[in-house]
Design a protein that fits this description.
Layout lengths: L1 H11 L5 H11 L8 E4 L9 H16 L3 E6 L9 H14 L7 E3 L4 H13 L3 E4 L3 H7 L17 H13 L8 E4 L14 E5 L13 E3 L1 H12 L3 E5 L6 H8 L10 E5 L11 H9 L14 H7 L3 H11 L11 H15 L1 E3 L1 E2 L2 E6 L7 E7 L9 E7 L1 E5 L19 E4 L4 E9 L5 E8 L17 E2 L2 E2 L4 E8 L24 E9 L1 H5 L7 E3 L3 E5 L8 E8 L3 H9 L1
Parallel strand pairs: 1-2, 2-3, 8-9, 10-23, 12-18, 16-19, 21-25
Antiparallel strand pairs: 4-5, 5-6, 6-7, 11-22, 12-15, 13-14, 15-20, 16-17, 17-18, 21-22, 23-24, 24-25
Helix pairs in contact: 8-9, 12-13
């Protein structure tokens, strides 16, 4: 491994993130026997979001790039918040992003016996003790960054008493919150994490894997580094908020290593995205209070929500590659950058088709009644291999109501009395009359068509300024469209005073019933299918969609109208 990296270094080093560069340097030096092993350690207490995707791309991506392996390890040390539903969802999300861990799936609970044994060892060595104080009392004794803490009155308990109490804690003899096991380090340390951190607390909620076997559960700082060590992890990559934890990570690992191997913690900047929140607690609150339609609501920043909305894994990964990894906590990343990556990918792969969101009927009065002809539509102009599909044209069609004006302003290049437009893929039509109801509302637009204006005919080259999308009325299929937008109406909800829920965008979801789609869309409305509804946006069938009731999610508009609107309001 070390020789391979040395040989490839000049080429590999180009465009490396600082994390990847550190990995390359370690491999070149032959650390840990030239091995590379990473891990992604989610707690199964919620669904993964776009911030986790950044970590996944680093953990699994680096292992792939440099010939190592990566583990998926569920950090299941708090049974009060964890569930197998989350375990399954996490697996699905990682697979969707394009990564696989093979046989390397682990759980922190796999190491509960070793962790417990290490705790007993530290008690015997006088480096841990049972504390009977409340969490509030312990917190008060921690002091401040500029003032030392105060020793617990239980800090010097005899070893045998600590061993007995810890064993009884695990047997369930004491109530939750009545006792904890603390490391005996330094209550005057400048690093607050060294001021006798809690190693174990009592939890009597059954665990989703181990049931009622354990009544004491390790804290993150005690479990994480040791689990890395037990697993063989060489590079423990995490976000910047864990920088102050690194000395404690190393402190506990020191009790296990003989120096021949040890994991190395490396921190990078977390992802902060505009117009949303990344706090699992807040996201859970939105779900539990019914403010969104579940963890996979397409407005959520969760990976499952983005998948349901129609984002592609390639777009997400491209976005993460572009924003990169640094050692500096950066300002908010504009969600427009993510949306640009989505548009870019969908433009290349989405099938073009016709749908009318707000239909008004057009009658082509000189077209034969009862006649239908098929016109050919290009599936994707960006892909020469995508082919075409047939679309029916008939005497009565639907167009967008907004594409007609009775008294148009200058430079209105759509349909109006006496004006001509081209129907995409079909004929040129000219408005001759308008039919209104008793209230003056337009119910029909009457037009004539130029029979020689279809592609391949003599009049096909005749120039008109407007081109409209349309759907044959006799063949149109009714569907529902869900139009999604920003979840919040402020750029950084977490920075605002007050209740974050008051900042939700009331227009983040608009449901449009009775849209008209061409038959080709209805016939191909399979899960995961990507469509560009011409002139409207990118859409995908929702999980709620059925052949009897089609439901489409707007993945994204063709252009970023939100950013333009915000600039106008400034």
């Amino acid at each position: 491994m070390a020789e391979k990296i040395e040989a490839e270094m000049p080429e590999e080093a180009k465009g490396l993130s600082f994390v990847e560069q550190m990995i390359v340097d370690d491999l070149k030096e032959g650390k840990n026997g030239g091995r590379l092993q990473t891990r992604f350690p989610p707690e199964p207490n919620g669904y993964l979001h776009i911030g986790h995707a950044k970590a996944i791309c680093m953990d699994f991506g680096a292992a792939e790039k440099f010939g190592g392996k990566s583990f998926l390890r569920f950090d299941d040390t708090n049974p009060t918040k964890e569930d197998t539903e989350y375990v399954d969802a996490i697996r699905d999300d990682i697979h969707w992003l394009g990564f696989d861990w093979g046989e390397n799936e682990r759980y922190a609970s796999d190491y509960f016996p070793q962790l417990y044994d290490l705790a007993v060892r530290l008690i015997k060595e006088g480096k841990a003790y049972v504390d009977d104080q409340t969490s509030e009392e312990i917190a008060a004794q921690k002091g401040t960054p500029t003032t030392p803490g105060t020793d617990s009155p239980y800090r010097n308990r005899p070893v045998e008493e600590n061993l007995d109490l810890f064993e009884r804690m695990n047997k369930g003899e004491f109530e939750e919150g009545s006792r904890v096991l603390r490391a005996k380090i330094d209550m005057a340390s400048s690093n607050m994490h060294f001021r006798d951190p809690i190693m174990y607390r009592i939890i009597k909620t059954p665990h989703h894997r181990t049931g009622t076997q354990w009544k004491v559960y390790p804290m993150y700082d005690f479990a994480h580094g040791q689990s890395d060590f037990f697993e063989g992890v060489t590079h423990s990559i995490c976000t910047l908020e864990f920088v102050p934890h690194r000395p404690l990570y190393d402190y506990f690992v020191d009790f296990l290593t003989d120096g021949s191997y040890r994991p190395r913690q490396i921190e990078f900047n977390r992802l902060n995205l505009t117009y949303t929140v990344m706090s699992k607690r807040k996201l859970l609150q939105l779900v539990q209070e019914g403010l969104v339609a579940g963890w996979d609501d397409p407005r959520m920043p969760t990976i499952s929500g983005m998948r349901r909305r129609g984002f592609t894994s390639k777009a997400v990964r491209n976005f993460i590659d572009r924003i990169g990894y640094t050692k500096i906590e950066e300002a908010m990343i504009s969600v427009s950058l993510l949306e640009h990556a989505v548009r870019e990918d969908l433009n290349a792969i989405a099938t073009r088709a016709m749908a009318v969101m707000n239909p008004v009927k057009v009658v082509v009065t000189n077209y034969p009644e009862g006649q239908t002809e098929m016109v050919e539509m290009e599936n994707n102009p960006e892909d020469a291999t995508a082919g075409t599909h047939s679309m029916p044209f008939s005497r009565e069609i639907f167009i967008e109501a907004d594409d007609f004006m009775e008294n148009p302003p200058k430079k209105f290049f759509r349909l109006a009395p006496g004006a001509e437009v081209r129907l995409k893929g079909a004929y040129i039509i000219k408005c001759t009359d308008v039919v209104k109801d008793a209230d003056g509302n337009i119910v029909e637009i009457h037009c004539t068509y130029d029979p020689e204006s279809r592609s391949g005919m003599a009049g096909a080259s005749r120039k008109v300024k407007g081109t409209l999308h349309w759907v044959s009325a006799a063949h149109a299929v009714d569907a529902t469209a869900r139009i999604y937008d920003r979840l919040f109406n402020v750029e950084n909800p977490s920075a605002e005073d007050g209740d974050f829920r008051d900042l939700l965008n009331p227009d983040s979801l608009k449901v449009v019933e009775g849209i008209k789609v061409e038959p080709f869309i209805a016939e191909n409305a399979r899960p995961g299918e990507k469509f560009q509804f011409q002139r409207i946006g990118y859409f995908t069938p929702d999980v709620d969609s059925t052949p009897e009731k089609l439901v489409f999610n707007r993945t994204i508009a063709l252009k970023d109208s939100w950013e333009k609107a915000q600039k106008k309001n400034v």
